[in-house]
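Same chain as my last thread, 528 residues:
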Amino acid sequence: MVDEAAAAKARHHEIMRVLPGLMLAMALAMLDNMIVATAMPRIVGELGGLAHLSWVVTSYVLGTTVSTPLWGKLGDLYGRKRVFLVSIVIFLAGSTLCGMAGSAVLSGAGSGMIQLIVFRALQGLGAGGLLVNAFATIGDLMPPLERGRYQGIMSGTMGLTMIAGPLVGGFITDYLSWRWAFFVNLPLGAVALALLAANLRLPVHRTEHRIDWAGAGTLAVGISALVLITTWGGSEYPWASTPILLLACIAAVSLAIFLWIERNAAEPILPLHLFRDSNFTLSTVISFLLGFAMFGSMNFVPLFQQMVQGDSATRSGLSMLPMMLGMMVVSIVVGQLITRTGRYRQFPIIGGVLIALAMWMLSLQHSDATRLQTGIAIAVLGAGMGFLMQTTMLISQNSVPQKDMGVGSSASTFFRSIGGSFGVSLFGAVFSHRLVAELSASMGPETAHRMVSTSGSISPTVFHTMPPQLRTQLVEALATSIDSVFAWAVLFAALLPLIAWFIKHVPLRGGGPASEHGNEVRGTATFD
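reply #2:
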């Protein structure tokens, strides 16, 4: 008993040495999206290429989504530390190049916007390794029983960076060059790199490796096609158009080949046998639905605040505080409870109920909704996120052998990302269709289509210059359309607690190194 307590104390001391580096690495990935989103109007104003604006986001999403499972597998095969450090270096290289896009240094290498799109893809490749390796590192250092409190801290960090991101982005946009939206990553990344290089000590198990390049390639093609479908479908091209149907065929064929390859690969990038564990399968389905319902609809909260409630961009960012604080506090508390009790099954059920309740509350908002009403709803949403996000990661990790820890960690992130991509597409189509219908009823079809198809939607600046009567009609139409998005989100969110109910309570491994708890690791272990 004394030896076990001493070992637990040693593990705590070890992880506290590396936790600041892990938190900084996670903050890099989270802050980047928030800051760049705020700076995008300024970027477009200088580089031009408004028609390619969506590709700045799409290229980053593609790089992140495609590389997520690959980073997890590479960490399992070659050692988490070196793979983690490589992902940070790639992210920082991409950030540097993004900040230089369109500058005199890169003149003659294509237009500034095209350069930015390419460099954002490189940055996304590195970002795919940041979140996966941060959570997988905790999985390598701590057995599941002791893992909750530290993953709760990491989830709280996500919430904190989501609060800071819009504020930092606003400051950079107003007082510095937009290039600092990317250059700001360099000092943070350098500190994270130094801390992890100096303090992170993880066992490396020497084995003969075979990288599943065929599986990685077919998965990349299939997922890229799916992301392009969700990005272009209903906006750039009609859903039944030739490009979208061709992409659907490419996705179906590529993913079918991928499944065949994974069944026969010596070391598959996504081992299909893991899905024989019901808890692993259920946690990945929950992650997909969570991304679908939550990330797909969350984009419309700032739109409601700015266009319907009249908030500025800065105030809209501050108005998200209840959600981020709810997520941060609940994540930390739940992590502590899991560590103390070893019980976790009830948390995804509670989280699913809260997210469904939040979506229902948001769907009831009308044009006269108060900020207090919105604040309460998004606080409930944040609490639901706090109950769900880290718990699904923990369930995935507890359901896989230690040698597949990276895959278990990346699966949760991967399926949440894919779900979010699908959700954004579906809810965007719901919003546009309902908005056109509402405006057609009040202004006529021709005016409605003109307002929705131009102006990259209606910006707050243009909105406030409209005649009062037109502005009132638009507010009513926007409020009703956004309500429809949340009403659809309720249907998907309601599945979360139902699926979570079928999760079985499998005792969390604990009390010693994870490899000593039924997870044999081949080869000789050394430390990197």
